[in-house]
């Protein structure tokens, strides 16, 4: 690929795959959560429960694909696309940190808003990464 073609192609395929992986993980996890919740409220609905579990599993797969593609984007891309990929890489780190806080917090103070704070920060990171990666290249330049 010539230098002229590379300048017009400002985001690599891993960056786009990372966004698709992370956003599909979010959507599938929410759908799976709602199905599991509905199956518990409705009684013994094994099919709904199985579908919810499968959706949660596919959400985990989407996050793994997103994480791997984020690594590829950090290696290949530059500038704000790399910054967006770094934001995506922080999502699992944030999840692990808040998981550790949640385990210790529920023992000491079960009413802490740890889950809500984790969701807000995760969606903020995902939104910033999406904007950094997906917006056109000419925005923010002379």
Structure write-up:
The protein has 142 residues and is mainly alpha-helical. The chain is built from five helices and no strands. The chain is globular. It starts with a helix and ends in an 8-residue tail after the last helix.
Helix and strand pattern: HHHHH
Which overall shape is indicated by the principal axes computed on the Cα atoms?
globular
Tell me the strand percentage band.
under 5%
**What count of helical segments does DSSP give?**
5
Q: How would you classify the helix and strand content by structural class?
A: mainly alpha
What does the largest sheet look like? none
Number of strands: 0
Total domains: 1
> Quaternary status of these chains?
single chain
Q: Outline the low-pLDDT stretches.
A: 1-6
Query: How far apart lie the N and C ends?
Result: 26 Å
Helix content, binned percent: over 70%
Nearest-integer average pLDDT: 85
- Radius of gyration over alpha carbons? 18 Å
Quick take:
With 142 residues, this protein is mainly alpha-helical. It has five helices and no strands.
SSE inventory with pairings:
Elements: H1 3-8, H2 13-41, H3 46-76, H4 79-108, H5 114-134
Comma- or semicolon-separated keywords:
single chain, 142 residues, mainly alpha, 0% strand, disordered N terminus
